Amino acid sequence: MPRSHAAHTAINAFGTHITVPAEAHPAPGGPAVKVSVDNNHCELYAICQQEAPQVFDLGPDGRLRYDATPAASETPAVRQAARCCPMQAITLTTREKQ
C-alpha cells in the first residue's frame, strides 16, 4: 500500500510549503513547529501576540520576542498567528518533538 501524504502546512504565502506524511502528525495540536520571524517584513502590528500570546510578545520597548520552539500544544495558535500576519513575516517549519 503506498504511503499517503497529508497535505500542507502552508504558513507563509511567500515562503516554502512543506508536506508531512499523515502518520507523522501526532494527535491533538499537530506536529511541533519551529518559528522564525523576518524582521525586515515585520511591522509590529502584534496580531501574532493576539493569536498566540504564549509564543509572541511585543514588549514595551517595541521589540517582538517569540518562542522559536513552542510546545506542540501551541501549534494551532501559532499557525493562526502566521496566517493572520498582514506582512506574512512569520514562517513555520515542522520539527521533531523532544
Descriptors:
single chain, 98 residues, alpha+beta, two-stranded antiparallel sheet, two-stranded antiparallel ribbon, 23% strand, disordered N terminus
How would you characterize the overall build of this protein?
This protein is an alpha+beta fold and 98 residues long. The chain is built from two helices and six strands, in the order βββαββαβ. It has helices at residues 47-51, 75-84, and strands at 5-8, 19-21, 33-37, 56-58, 64-66, 90-94. Strands 1-2 form a two-stranded antiparallel ribbon. The protein has a two-stranded antiparallel sheet with strand order 3-6. β4 and β5 (64-66) form a beta hairpin. The longest helix has 10 residues, at 75-84. The chain is globular and about 30 Å long. The chain starts with a strand and ends with a strand. The relative contact order is 0.29.
β-strand percent reads 15-25%
Distance between the termini: 30 Å
Q: What sort of overall outline do the alpha carbons produce when their principal axes are compared?
A: globular
List segments where confidence is low: pLDDT < 50 over at least 5 consecutive residues: 1-27
Encode the helix/strand succession as letters.
EEEHEEHE
Structural class: alpha+beta
How would the blueprint of this fold be written?
Elements: E1 5-8, E2 19-21, E3 33-37, H1 47-51, E4 56-58, E5 64-66, H2 75-84, E6 90-94
Antiparallel strand pairs: 1-2, 3-6, 4-5
Short summary:
With about 100 residues, this protein is an alpha+beta fold. About 15% of the residues lie in helices and about 25% in strands. The protein is globular.
